[in-house]
Automatic annotation (TrEMBL):
<keyword id="KW-0274">FAD</keyword>
<dbReference type="Pfam" id="PF01494">
    <property type="entry name" value="FAD_binding_3"/>
</dbReference>
<dbReference type="InterPro" id="IPR002938">
    <property type="entry name" value="FAD-bd"/>
</dbReference>
<feature type="domain" description="FAD-binding">
    <location>
        <begin position="331"/>
        <end position="396"/>
    </location>
</feature>
<keyword id="KW-0560">Oxidoreductase</keyword>
<keyword id="KW-0285">Flavoprotein</keyword>
<dbReference type="Pfam" id="PF13450">
    <property type="entry name" value="NAD_binding_8"/>
</dbReference>
<keyword id="KW-0503">Monooxygenase</keyword>
<protein>
    <submittedName>
        <fullName>FAD-dependent oxidoreductase</fullName>
    </submittedName>
</protein>
Length: 440
């Protein structure tokens, strides 16, 4: 007697939920995604996301080959390695600058600077029969037959064998499943912005900022920069891959519309919340002039080009956010409701680790559900193994991000000097640098 096939309901159509849906559909598992946005184009904003090998491996495994190739073609190359510098643009240590060129299609080594809008369009490709828009989740109920029913604000319901919380940091699914799950607010705030790579800006932007990712350790505060520069012109992509794009049911012009935006340098300035005026949070979104005035004050003594980077950015690209992180959860009794990404292990937006961890979750959960669907492993055992692994690496990543955030915003002169000395020493003593950071 063949095993009963699974029916999976995913709440949330972010990158984790859609990656899971792509993988399950590719494996022949029945899946439906319920997304509260009313249309596929509801989220046409945001900074780009750096997909590291962890995320690349997940996307490569879950996406059809043609979509993976398209993702690589439409992404940018974030540049080799990362630089650690002081506020005067003096290098402390440069990591991974001289490594071999990697094949961008090889997920085990490739990194990709992807447009969030283009990524979402790619993840939605071929899922017209899977994704239901305008479905605001309100709660779930379990039945004695082992199924679970999701309820929505429009009065409809959906019954499945497994319900997956992929609805982000304020997950309603997770709040019902684990009402005691907590979150801590970190004493950090960030302002981010973009400097577009116009001909004028290219003339003054330092080469180091155009080379790749950089971390700046001033005597107070913290700055991160990254370059987002397309690998291939959209017109060339359409000429080379247009037929494959159309074969996927996609309009090449619509898919690549966001990719026609100017390339840019992203910067993120992070500081201790108590270092800012009490009124800053309310002004940050509506008063770009006040934000730039504050940044000019906080960066006094920095290299002029770094000051220009954070004070002369396009006003409507400025974005302010506070930081929070999920509190650790112990292993629970596995049932037919599980989760992935920020719904479980929400973390600050430092280094793009949250998005990459969500993709890793989706990949692992897809494998577990596929094994159960095929009768290779009982569903409870497959989900229990996934959850144990996800909790371990998910909250390890949360701790890493929180630790890095606390180091970035510390107001201890001793700790900041020690960090600068450590990076500078690793840069000056190559064997030590290789031991700590790997190949340089």
């Amino acid at each position: 007697m063949s095993p009963r096939r699974l029916d999976v309901a995913v709440i949330g159509g972010g990158i984790g939920g859609l990656c899971l849906a792509q993988g399950l559909k590719r494996a022949g598992v029945r899946v439906t995604v319920y997304e509260r946005d009313r249309t596929a184009d509801s989220r046409l904003q945001g900074f780009r996301l750096n997909i590291e090998p962890t995320g690349s491996i997940a996307l490569h495994a879950c996406l059809p080959p043609a979509l993976w190739e398209l993702l690589v073609a439409t992404a940018g190359d974030p540049g080799p390695g990362i630089g650690f510098l002081d506020e005067r643009l003096r290098p402390l240590i440069l990591i991974g600058q001289d490594g071999p060129d990697h094949d961008p299609l090889d997920p085990t080594v490739s990194e990709h600077a992807v447009s969030r809008v283009t990524l979402r369009k790619l993840l939605l490709a071929g899922l017209d029969d899977v994704v239901r828009f305008g479905k605001e989740f309100t709660g779930f109920a379990r039945a004695d037959d082992g199924t679970v029913t999701a309820k929505f604000a429009d009065g409809t319901t959906a019954t499945a064998d497994v319900l997956v919380a992929a609805d982000g940091a304020n997950s309603r699914v997770w709040a019902q499943l684990h009402p005691a799950a907590g979150r801590i607010a970190l004493p950090a705030t960030a302002v981010a912005g973009k400097v577009f790579l116009t001909e004028e800006n290219r003339r003054w932007l330092p080469e180091r900022l155009l080379a790749g990712k950089n971390v700046f350790w001033p005597r107070s505060d913290f700055l991160f920069t990254a370059i987002f520069r397309r690998r291939e012109d959209p017109t060339a992509i359409i000429a080379r891959l247009g037929d494959r794009i159309r074969a996927l049911g996609l309009d090449p012009e619509h898919l690549l519309a966001d990719s026609r935006d100017d390339d840019y340098v992203l910067w993120a300035f992070i500081t201790h919340r108590d270092s800012l005026p009490a009124s800053f949070a309310s002004k940050a979104q509506d008063d770009p002039a006040a934000v730039r005035e504050l940044l000019a004050e906080r960066t006094a003594g920095w290299h002029p080009d770094l000051r220009r980077l954070v004070t002369a950015s396009t006003p409507d690209t400025l974005y302010q956010t506070g930081f929070s992180a999920a509190e650790p959860l112990g292993q629970w009794e596995t049932g037919n409701v599980t989760g992935l990404g920020d719904a479980v292990h929400h973390m600050p937006p430092v280094g793009g680790l949250g998005g990459n961890t969500a993709l890793r979750d989706a990949h692992r959960l897809c494998a577990a559900l596929t094994a159960a669907d095929r009768g290779e492993e009982p569903l409870p055992r497959a989900l229990r193994a996934y959850e144990a692994d996800m909790l371990r690496y998910g909250f390890e990543t949360v701790r890493e991000v929180v630790r890095n955030t606390e180091g970035a915003i510390t107001r201890s002169a001793l700790k900041r000097s020690a960090a600068r000395w450590f990076f500078r020493t690793c840069g000056a003593v190559p064997p030590l640098g290789r031991a700590v950071f790997g190949e340089r």
